[in-house]
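Translate sequence into structure tokens.
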Amino acid sequence: YGDNCIAPKERFNAREAVELLINVVGDLNNKYDTEYITDILLGVATDNIKSYSLHRHELFGKGADHDRRYWTSVIRQSLVEGYIAKDIEKYGLLHLGPNADKLDTDKSPIMFCIDREFNGQEDEELTVGSPTSALDEGLLHALKQLRLRMAEKNHTQPGFIFADYILDQMATFYPIKDEEFLKLMNVNETQLKKYGKPFQEFIAKYVKENEIERPQDFFYIKTIAKKSSKLPEIISGIDRHTPLDTLADNLGITMDELLNEIEKSIIRQGKGVKLDYYLYDRYDQDSIEDVLIYFKEAPDPDIHLAMKEFSGDDYPEELIRLVKIKFSTEEGQYS
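Result follows.
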């Protein structure tokens, strides 16, 4: 097991919890991240939960007998064991993993343990309100601090070193070897050679000091990005200033899928794309400028934080994603 355990006495049979987790993730059609799923299990009716009417779901609050640390532990270890998985390219949304179906035939106990609790003093600038798909918040916090120090030393933006979603992977799988780092999504040899060693050494020390048993199977961490057959049509459509919703319809995909493709196949490959023709035609200029200023002034221009900062009808998710693409293109920050 890839356990980050605080004591052997806290090991428990998590079978019922894993089954409930799988039911929640599957029943909600793989559309929500760790934070949402945990709130649903605990029965926490946040504004975001209410906005999707999730507080009315039949499984809402079914895990309220346990606390947040319990469910975070179950989710993290279920991820490592393959009962659930997360889509890093879609902001850490949880979906059923390759081993979910095995629970129907394998009735043996599932032994998990409670993750250690991180009690360090947090840098408010870096962490307040920060949603994440990482499942070791203590390590993630420390890695963000390390990244910030390296960015200051190298006179660059933190996202140029390792993007947030890469830190999320580090704080879930604890990679310490070169071959493990290269199996993280969108980490290449040049990046590893330039920035990897301090992160490897820090994670190795963290693992040793906290007696963490790392997951052994790193082969499933990285999704091999196949070149999209639709990418040439997307680029051609943008060059012709085809409205993005029309372009998506012409390609037989949703608007969400179109933006995913632009983010994955263009922005994350270090290239820019100009979408002002669509952005300013569909959205209010003041709303666009508000979000753009946020990205420019934020110490860590993470889209998750932006979605938390801006909510309501004036700032839909599509607007925030489009402005992040604009920001990445104009500022050369392709994280």
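Note: Strands lie at 11-13, 84-87, 93-96, 111-113.
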